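User: Study the chain.
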Amino acid sequence: MSSSTTYAVLVHGWGGSPKAWDTVRFPATWTTFAYTLPGHGDRAQEGPWTIRETAEDLADYVRSVVPAGVKPLIIAHSMGGQLSMLLNAEHPELVSGEVVIDPAYNGGDSPEELAETHRNLAELHCDPHAMMREFVKGAFGPYLNNDARRVILDDIERTNGQALVDYFASEYLDPGAFGLKRDTPNVAKRRTRPVLGFYMTDARGNAERECNPEGLDVSISLWKEAGHRHFMHMEDPERFSREVVEWAVQHGLADAGDLLSAPVETAAVRA
């Protein structure tokens, strides 16, 4: 790194908001920006609500907040991982490296799993917020404290219901979707920037390695301890930020001094 400042853009997931990053502390030498997806949080009434159009919106956001010529880290959770993948594949000039947390790709594509995906979409059409509340129950494990759970549930209620429906279809079932394992390589194979993936199982970590182009630098952090689930960055934000910073330094994407820099109180959000 030739600069003393490391830039990072944080991308929340489906039904979330920048509040998901509030407990994640990055070094004081980092400048971070938390992006809000259309249809979510303070942008609940804004569109569009498709993966590809939102990826372009994210690209515009990066251009607007990061100094020209500077490539930030893109750190993304869940559905946000589809957006970061598209930036890596189609806008590499805006990405120095990509960090994904249990991203919404390489999804199950067996007949049984596809049937479940269609059932989920049907339930979303009936009552999107009720379906989401039920959906995230499986992501609530012993490492996720009550404050984090409250943030997640509050974010769901603030999300536009139709946006929840449209994004889900755009992730997995619409033409051009790449959330299913058979479709993910269509985009992943075009990545050129290094990737760090946070996963809970060997199978998911191996799928990340296999979907990318041969020779791409892919690192996997496996949180295999019983109880870790989908919101790893909220379950243990200190461990998460430490591993991200170490990876960035090892790959020349951040200064070695960042390892010694005191963390800021929360992930700084500057718009």
Summary: Strands lie at 6-11, 30-35, 73-77, 97-101, 195-199, 218-222. The first strand starts at residue 6 and ends at 11. The mean pLDDT is 95. The chain is about 40% helix and 10% strand.
